Amino acid sequence: MNQRVISVQGRGTATAEPDLVQLSFNISVMDQEYDGAIAGLNDRVNRLRQDVATVDVDPKGLKTISFDISPKHRWNEERDERVFLGFEAKHDLRLELPLDQDLLNRTLAQLAQSASQATFSIYFAVKDGNALRQRVLADAVARARENAETLAQAADVQLGDILRIDYGWTEIRVSERIMEYDASMAPSMPMADIEPDEIEAGDNVTVVWAIG
Known about the structure:
The protein is α+β, with helices and mostly antiparallel strands. It has 3 helices and 8 strands. The chain is elongated and about 75 Å long.
C-alpha cells in the first residue's frame, strides 16, 4: 500500500542592507588599424586606473571581465559590398568597493570628468551572500510548514515525518543595477544622489510530509 503524503511549496524571502558597491565599466575604441585600436583602448584604461588612484582606491582592484577586438563592417547597398569600418576594441572591467557614501561620491565625481570616456553601471550587493541564502531557505521551510499545517487541519489529517525536501538550486540575486552612466556626457548629466535600498532575495522549497 502506498504511503499517503502531502507535498507543499514554501516561498522564502529575506532582505539585507547592502555593504558592497560594484562599478562595472565598458570602454570601447574604433580605429582603422589594429594596433591603433589596441593603443587607444590601453590609453583609456590607463586613464581609468589613474582616476581610481586619485580617490585613494588601489587601481589593482580594477579587474578585467572581458576583452575583445574585432573588425567592423557595414553593407553598402549601392556597391553591393561590405565596407570595412575599422577595428573595434572593447574592454569590460569591474571595481568592487566597500559601501561608503563619501568614497562612492568622490569616485563618481572623479569618473564624471574622466578622460577614459567609460560607460559604467552601478550595482549594490552583500558580502555574505551565503548567509542571506540560508535565511531565505529557512524562511521557505517555515512557510511550507505553515501551509502544510493549514492544509492538514482542513483535511482532518495529521502531519507525520518529513520525507523529502526539494529546492531548485537557483542562484538568488543579491545585487541590483541602479544606473548606467556615460562619462562623455558629464557636462550635461549631473551625478545622482544615490541611497541604495535593501537587497531582496527569494527562493522556493518543496517539502513532502507523511500524513496519517
